[in-house]
Design goal:
Layout lengths: L18 E10 L2 E10 L3 H11 L5 E9 L5 E7 L10 H12 L9
Antiparallel strand pairs: 1-2, 1-3, 3-4
């Protein structure tokens, strides 16, 4: 993790309309399955609670922001994890997968 001081007034715009995509990966009948949910009208803590409630101890999960670019193309900005349906393609994805595995059975958000 890296940090730096910043002037909080440096942004040109802001929005409270956040659109999340939650991926739940898990064994189902001996093979990996993926359940994908789009989530809106929720804050990050709500979505993290949803992830931990829907994920069982053997299910990996990942969370992304859904964004649309200037050409109208939908894309994802990963907040945690990645779409691990395939093999990790680089060191960043390998580390994301390691962290996804490390949080199995852990509760990231409590009330």
């Amino acid at each position: 993790m890296r940090t730096r001081p910043v002037d909080e007034r440096d942004n040109a715009w802001e929005s409270d309309r956040v659109y999340y995509r939650l991926y739940l990966f898990g064994p189902e009948q001996g093979s990996r399955s993926t359940e994908t949910l789009d989530v809106w009208d929720a804050d990050l803590l709500d979505v993290l609670r949803l992830a931990q409630n829907k994920a069982s101890p053997e299910r990996l999960w990942a969370l992304a922001l859904v964004e649309t670019d200037q050409q109208g193309q939908r894309g994802l900005r990963w907040l945690t994890g990645y779409d691990c349906n395939g093999e990790p393609r680089n060191e960043r994805e390998r580390e994301a997968y390691r962290l996804m595995r490390a949080r199995l059975g852990h509760t990231p958000v409590t009330d």
